[in-house]
């Protein structure tokens, strides 16, 4: 299920990035800045959890930054994160998925989660922020991407539309 869920995440991320690209930063600066801020937060959280999964030091001291990267940079980092996560999931065993990882959150609080819980959090977290971006797109008069799992699975596997 994780393999399918992360394929869906990658698809939904791409649809969101494409929709954000339809915004004109000069004409819709608030919506564009909000979308970039949300994408920045999403990718920073993914990079923090990826480091935890790898046993590496935290790459960021916070879950957002004052200076926002360009949309191109955010896309590059999000694609790299998705590629790494897909590869990591392919190598997971039931034992490694259950492995508990202890770490310190960006706010200084101690935490522990299994690898599987971390991966679920990454999925859930991205869905939440893509929804916020969708709302901002609607408010700006742009098209909100339809990104539900049901739409994805029937696009990825059209034979499921048996009627």
UniProtKB/TrEMBL annotation:
Keywords: Metal-binding. Gene3D superfamilies: dinb family like domain (1.20.120.450). This is Damage-inducible protein DinB. Belongs to the DinB family. InterPro entries: DinB, DinB/YfiT-like. GO terms for molecular function: metal ion binding. The keyword Oxidoreductase does not apply. It holds the Pfam family DinB. The keyword Ubl conjugation does not apply. A divalent metal cation binds at residues 41, 125, 129.
């Amino acid at each position: 299920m994780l393999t399918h869920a992360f394929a869906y995440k990658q698809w939904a991320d791409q649809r969101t990035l494409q929709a954000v690209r339809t915004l004109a930063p000069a004409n819709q600066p608030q919506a564009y800045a909000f979308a970039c801020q949300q994408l920045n937060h999403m990718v920073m959280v993914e990079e923090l959890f990826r480091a935890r999964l790898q046993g590496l030091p935290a790459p960021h001291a916070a879950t957002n930054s004052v200076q926002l990267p360009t949309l191109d940079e955010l896309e590059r980092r999000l694609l790299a994160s998705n590629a790494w996560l897909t590869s990591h999931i392919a190598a997971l065993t039931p034992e490694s998925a259950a492995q508990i990882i202890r770490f310190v959150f960006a706010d200084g609080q101690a935490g522990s989660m299994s690898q599987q819980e971390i991966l679920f959090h990454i999925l859930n977290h991205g869905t939440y922020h893509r929804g916020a971006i969708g709302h901002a797109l609607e408010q700006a008069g742009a098209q909100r991407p339809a990104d539900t799992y049901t739409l994805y699975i029937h696009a990825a596997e059209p034979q499921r539309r048996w009627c």
